[in-house]
Design brief:
single chain; Hypothetical protein af1432; 9 helices; about 0% strand
């Protein structure tokens, strides 16, 4: 594996992949690191159509209720229709579009999954860094919304 993944990260990805063997995490990381970096964001966006929101599955709601794509589109619709005057729609739209994109690699972790907040943040950060390897502004946006915010919550700030 390449794409900015060092040996320690590779071992961590393998460990998480073994713990969640039904989610193809290692295979997804390999697939994305092997594709050209400039194509990764577009392919990730396309793959959101095929990733389920896991929380629905875990509580037994069947058949497929909501894909990651549907989730993102629903949030964008809510933003457009419910935001008060003066809301920076463009910036918030960008945040919504990147906030769960790492799930095309990691899948959706929920409260029922045997993963710590620190592990979740780390695996998702590795995934988002691969997807947006050539787009540091998108990584910064994700960090602002997901990475840094989750880290603060994980340590109780």
């Amino acid at each position: 594996m390449h794409g900015g993944i060092d040996c320690d990260d590779g071992r961590f990805i393998s460990e998480i992949s073994c713990r969640f063997s039904d989610r193809n995490i290692l295979e997804n990381f390999r697939a994305f690191t092997e594709m050209p970096a400039h194509l990764r964001p577009r392919i990730a966006a396309f793959r959101t159509n095929f990733v389920d929101r896991e929380g629905w599955n875990q509580i037994g709601v069947k058949p497929r209720v909501q894909s990651l794509h549907n989730h993102i589109e629903t949030l964008l619709d809510m933003l457009r229709h419910l935001s008060p005057e003066g809301t920076d729609i463009a910036r918030l739209s960008e945040m919504i579009e990147v906030h769960d994109l790492q799930e095309v690699i990691t899948n959706d972790f929920t409260w029922n999954d045997p993963i710590t907040k620190a592990e979740k943040i780390r695996i998702e950060r590795l995934a988002i860094n691969i997807i947006f390897e050539n787009h540091p502004a998108k990584i910064a946006l994700w960090e602002e919304l997901c990475g840094e915010a989750l880290c603060r919550r994980a340590v109780g700030e």
